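Task card 7
Instruction: Convert sequence to structure tokens.
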Amino acid sequence: MSEKILPAQPVMDPGKPYVEINSYVVFWGLFYAAVFALAVGYLGLKIGQTIDAFAPVSILAMGMAIIFHRPKQNAFAETVHIQAIASAGTNGLAGALF
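Output:
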């Protein structure tokens, strides 16, 4: 009953500089953008409905970070940017289809 509740700690240290945009992020972001753009284009033309690539890319990007043994704190920031690049690419195509 008298357990001490510790304050929440941020995932990334605010005082430490992180390299968030690098060749790893750009490569995987563009790779996933191309793969999911093909999927969105096919679905949009075949059945008239598109998907958002944000959720599947987030899972795949974090999985790739684990496979390639990326540093834990930096992998979080890199995954966010990979998701943003891939999602922007597929959303642009989905908008063009409609």
